[in-house]
Design brief:
9 helices; 6 strands; 25% helix
Length: 255
């Protein structure tokens, strides 16, 4: 049989299609809700009887997308994160009869597997140590779980500035990156780099502060040759741009 380019092309596409179908049509549990010994699922309606202050605003929450209809999807609601609620209802409430994700991030990690890995990196917010919780920065019950975003970028910064007040400003000379959100430079969950930076040393700054180079051996940034400067260390520790978040006295953020 003679193999043509078209045969190989369409044969390869068909093989990939079969592989993808086999991956997405598995007959097994992919994500299991947390379990409570002896407890059974009662449905979100039972939760609303006591927690109406929370459930009333849940309809527009990001996590509301987990809600599903039908008997087989009964656990896809409040109990997807808090565990089956029969024992909680039977006891008339009580902290020991239901799971509170604020006390342990493992509930969040059941879906957000990548965040478990990021929080385990050398530089991360101390969620794994129990000094912070996911809900310190995210609201799971109302609105967008990722605060801010879109055209509301300052809203995204507010999550960070609740704790990092020194970086709030206002500054006479501000770093424009702050207008795009703190995540322009930092990974809020964790990073291999110091200060949870997205990249190391001057590599981070060069993602924005670069220009076309016209002469060999030069590194022109802002009309000045930086070739000799970048070997001294990071842009903010070599005695140059130390006020990296903003300055009151220098437009180059030097002090």
């Amino acid at each position: 049989m003679r193999w043509t380019k078209n045969t190989l092309l369409f044969g390869g596409i068909a093989a990939w299609g079969l592989l993808l179908i086999s991956c997405v049509t598995v007959n097994r549990t992919l994500v299991a809700p947390p379990q409570i010994p002896g407890a059974k699922v009662v449905g979100s309606e039972a939760c609303a009887e006591c927690h109406q202050n929370i459930t009333s605003g849940f309809h527009d929450a990001t996590h509301a997308k987990l809600m599903a209809q039908g008997e087989n999807a009964k656990a896809m609601g409040c109990e997807a994160c808090h565990g089956p609620g029969s024992e909680h209802v039977k006891a008339g409430g009580g902290a020991g009869t239901i799971i509170n994700p604020e006390k342990n991030p493992e509930t969040c990690f059941q879906c957000h597997l990548d965040k478990r890995g990021e929080f385990s990196l050398p530089n991360a917010h101390p969620v794994m140590a129990g000094k912070m919780t996911c809900s310190d920065c995210h609201n799971p019950h109302e609105g967008d779980a990722v605060m801010g975003g879109g055209t509301n970028l300052m809203g995204a910064n507010e999550s960070c500035l609740k704790c990092h007040e020194a970086q709030r400003g206002p500054f006479v000379f501000e770093h424009e990156a702050l207008r795009e959100s703190c995540t322009s430079c930092h990974n809020p969950h964790g990073s291999v780099n110091a200060k949870m930076l997205n990249a190391r040393n001057q590599s981070l700054c060069m993602q924005c502060h670069t220009q076309q180079q016209t002469a060999a051996g030069q590194l022109m940034i802002g009309g000045r040759d930086h070739a000799a400067f970048v070997t001294r260390g990071t842009c903010w520790t070599a005695g140059c741009h130390e006020a990296v978040h903003g300055s009151h006295v220098n437009s180059s953020l030097r002090f």
